[in-house]
Amino acid sequence: MKTKREVTIYDIAKALNISAATVSRGLKDHPAIKQETKDKIRAMAQEMGYQHNFFASSLRKRKTNTIGVVVPHLNSYFMSSVIAGIEKAANQEGYNLIISQSLESVSKESASVKTMYNSRVDGLLVSLAGDTQSIEHFDFILKKEIPLIFFDRVFEDPNCTSILIDNTQAGYDATLHLLKQGCKRIMHIGGNLQSNVYADRHEGYKQALEDHGIAYDPELVIIDIRGGQLGIKAAQQILDMEKLPDGIFTSSDTSAAACMSELKRAGIRIPEDIAIVGFNDDPISRLVEPRLTTIQYPGYEMGEVAAKTLINKLKHSSGDSMNTIMLKHKLIARESSSKKT
Asked: Cβ neighbours of residue 243 under 8 Å, at least 6 residues apart?
């Protein structure tokens, strides 16, 4: 079967009896070309089914106006908020996005980075997978001087900018809030400690206890708990304890909400028996009963800042850049932790 040949600017030029250079300028809306000629060129291009060869153009310019984004997963309110912020800032500057999820796997993350590189992205925005322990798989990106920015889950490297909140302080603030409510036996439900965000929140929890003369008890720490189903398992583990905690700080609102629901089903009063603080300020925190106290994590702002910082690097490659950009978090007190009225 004979394949249909791609229409070129030379075909349009021949049909209109003008030069290919004029066609090229007309399609680019060049001011030197009369509007009447531009209209004829565009009409003929549409009639003949002309498609701009973006790939060939990008090779000539050595620029695709495309940003690669690699995240651990897409099915969370926080990450969708970050991507929305990235997309807004990128689109305002004429950039498109290629988005991939690592599914918490460093091997999938590495494959995604290679795909981004082969797609000739101008720069990369990455939130690292849970089992990423080094960034060797980004070495070829750095050697090619392709700008690389980490956000949320980051890795400290002098060649990369990191954008995050002070997770240690946030964990401290959440635990301190429970201490101020009179809680003495506070449990922490956290994520994979290989990840900076969960390790830092756990560290903040420990520091707050130490500063208030309360010994750290490993039995009151449940690690690698993420998502609603695991929140239920955490609640079941709590209910099996001889002495229940009087406060719980979780590293996600979804696990907090699921845990709270299961505890209430077992007859535990929230916050009278156990006060609970979550993390992220997901919509679920305002829908559960009682409404969930949480740490507000500015996901949309993080996305905007990440994209703007990357685009600034692309525009001013020789300029100095900050290695760490710290955004502000905020504790939002609601009924789930209000023991004192």
From this structure: 185
Residue 53 token pair: 């060869």
CATH code assigned to 65-164+299-327: 3.40.50.2300
Q: Is 250 helix (H, G, I), strand (E, B) or coil?
A: strand
CA 42/CA 48 separation, integer angstroms = 10
- The residue type found at 293 is T
pLDDT digits (tens, 9 = 90+) for 73-91: 998 899 999 999 999 999 9
φ, ψ for residue 169 (rounded to 5)? Answer: -65, -35
Q: What's the fold here for domain 9-52?
A: 434 Repressor (Amino-terminal Domain) (1.10.260)
Q: Is the dihedral of CA 174, 177, 179, 181 positive or negative?
A: negative
- Angle made by CA atoms 76, 82, 88, in degrees to the nearest 5: 135
Q: Using CA atoms, how far apart are residues 95 and 307, in angstroms rounded to an integer?
A: 10
Using one digit for the tens of pLDDT, what is the confidence trace for 117-157? 888 899 999 999 988 999 999 998 988 889 999 999 999 88
Q: What pTM does this model have?
A: 0.81
What is the rounded distance in angstroms from the CA atom of residue 45 to the CA atom of residue 19?
Answer: 14
